[in-house]
Amino acid sequence: MQKMLSQGPINLTLIVVGALWWALAGCAGSSFAPEAVPSPAITESSLLLPGQAIAPHNVSQITELAVLGKGIALTIAFAPDSSLIAVGSSNGIALYDRQTLTRQQFFAANGPVTRAAFSPDGQLLVSLSQSQQDTTVTLWRVSDGVLLDTIEDLRGMSDIAFSPDGKTLAAWKGNVVTLWQISDQTLLYTLDRHTSWVSQVAFSPDGQMLASAGADRIVHLWRVSDGALLQTLKGFVLPPTSMIFSPDGQILALSSRKDTVELWRASNGTLLSKLTGSDEDVTGLAFSADGQTLAAATFTGRVHLWRVSDGVLLNELPGVEGGSSFSGSYTVFSPDIQILGHVMFPDGIVVIRQFTDGRLLGRLEGFSGPVISVAISPDNQILATVTMSSIQLWQMSDAHLLQEWEVSANWTMTVAFSPDSEMIATGSVDNTVKLWRVSDGSLAYTLTGHAGPIVGVAFSPDGEILASRSADGAVKLWRWREGALAQTLDSGWGMGVAFSPDGQILATGSNQTASLWQVRDGSLMRELQHANIIGNVTFSPDGQLLACGVADTISLWRVADGALLHVLDSPSWVKQVAFSPDGQLLAVVTEENGTIELWQVSDGTLLHTLDFAAISFVSGPSSLAFSSDGAFLVIGLFDGTVRLWGIASR
Q1: Is residue 33 over pLDDT 80?
Q2: Average pLDDT score over the chain
Q3: What is the reported pLDDT for 622?
Q4: What is the DSSP letter of 34?
Q5: Beta strands in 70-207, from DSSP E residues, in sequence order
Q6: Under a CB-based contact definition with an 8 Å cutoff, are residues 178 and 169 in contact?
Q7: Per-residue DSSP letters for 271-337?
């Protein structure tokens, strides 16, 4: 089907960003005349070398030395002529050529870009950058990536949409929608009839009407000229997820449940019909130019085509492939309706397909999924980072990407280097442990036998034994070179597994118990009781202490006699703990507030906190590791990047 479609605000208000374009064109009386400010240069592999090891006396001087990784794709938009594809990610905006699917430019943003849209002539791009602390709206020149302006009046907004004539901007936060005149950035009207947060807005094609949908399961129709409430649509089972007006503005199509798209008459708020046949959440809607056909894209990328007049389902395109088994998609139609752009989540990748038959055209390179785990080789030469479906190896000396390979269609949860730095072990949710050669990324061994996802792996210091921890409660000890299972320990449900530095003791964490096992025969030496679930365990470099992450605390135990030395209170759930190589510092990854805490081991004093809320739209750090010389603290983030921190050389 070759009919031209027009699409709704779910695809980021594709061609209605003329407001900022119009203002910058030099309209008479406008006070909005920003000066061009060059955007920061992006050097993904540049590295500021550390000057000394991180220690208690200088920990307050720790700074970010490098940012590695491609970031997660968060949103997508097409230029009005469909020649360019803009992808907003956790670290900026990338522009791709529509024909070749190759990256043309990259704009560094001041936060994760969750919305992007082109001006009607395609010369400008507006982005909404959203972190856990703030939201900013920024205007860019497409030709050279120059940052033209950051609109302060819109700081903190959740989302934005522009009228078709480019003169009015709708912005919303919480349960309030505001309308702005772009020429002088004047607030026109405040629309505050929703009783819960606003999820979607859509302008009618003539720009005279605005529809707003909220979590209160109500849709309001407003007159743009004076902010008057015209109609209220009720009766939705769930909050509407997608909305669009027909080309003549007479019909409002919206979806609020998996199996139905509803058509409403905009003039009087009458429900006209319900289009059925979909069994998934709708993430995008588009009308044909004549208004006779409606397309709906679903969570998995399937596309349904209905005839509007009688609701007949005309065609269905298959779902998109290429993501993890947990993946869904956010779908955008190109303005010429020749291709579909899918942002896969939680993978964070972008897939492009042909609209007519759903054929895969390609994947936009330059994005990755969340960084789940990081590890540094014992020789301090290589950094391994693991996303849900790939492994990256980086050169530590210059932060250069050495190689990358796909590992599984299922999430990879954990990674560890062998003591000789020649192998890495990974554990996945497919219940397997895989060992890979560092030299070429080839798969050397696959170990099977667990009945649940692998949540932890660790090599013994002599490299002969590999311990794997599963959600099934079992800890298995493998003579991995032979592919032979040596022992199985029943540790109970938990996350942590670690060898002591001398290789004689294995520590495991489970529900309220940290267990110490003799490696030689698998006998239980001692149990350390806690009041909550243990998420992580690690030995100090000298083997005398064991640190356990327990709910929102960290407990420090003396291994020799099982004495509890300190209990450190963290502001949120502890995900991981790691000792510095000299044993003086303990680094802690917290769950909810996006921070890394650095504690002094000797007296349990909190020395310093690294806050990632300002740069991360998603839930901050996922994992960390110290380099063996203590110069680097490597932090993996769920935004698809890896941050190298240290004390900068002077």
Answers
A1: no
A2: 83
A3: 86
A4: P
A5: 73-78, 84-89, 92-97, 103-107, 113-118, 124-130, 135-141, 147-150, 159-162, 168-173, 176-181, 186-191, 198-203
A6: no
A7: EEEEEE---S-EEEEEEETTSSEEEEEETTS-EEEEETTT--EEEEEPPP-SS-TT-EEEEEE-TTS
Cβ atoms of 397 and 649 closer than 8 Å: no
Q: What are phi and psi of 323, to 5 degrees?
A: -100, -175
Q: For 360-406, what is each residue's pLDDT tens digit?
A: 888 887 777 788 899 999 999 999 998 877 899 999 888 888 998 88
Is the model's pLDDT at 25 over the cut of 70?
A: no
Pick left, alpha or beta for residue 581 (phi over 0 → left; psi -120 to 50 → alpha; otherwise beta): alpha
Question: Could you give the CA distance from residue 119 to residue 106 in angstroms, rounded to a whole number?
Answer: 18
Tell the residue number behind the tokens 């290589």, with chain if given: 382
Distance (Å, whole) CA 260 – CA 257: 6
Domain residues for the domain of 393 are 370-490
Tell whether 385 is covered by a domain: yes
* Sign for the pseudo-dihedral over CA of 257, 258, 260, 265: positive
Domain-located, residue 623: no
Q: Indicate the residue type of 638.
A: F
CATH number of residue 401's parent domain: 2.130.10.10
Residue 395's beta-bridge partner residues? 382, 400
User: b/e map of 179-196 (b: 16 or more CB within 10 Å)?
Assistant: bbebbebeeebebeebee
d(CA 334, CA 329): 16
510: in domain: no
Quick check: is 239 in a domain?
A: no
Number of domains in the chain: 1
Alpha-carbon distance of 110 to 152, in angstroms, equals 14
User: If you average pLDDT over residues 329-333, what whole number do you get?
Assistant: 77
What is the distance between the alpha carbons of residues 60 and 600, in angstroms, rounded to a whole number? 12
Beta pairing partners, 275: 261
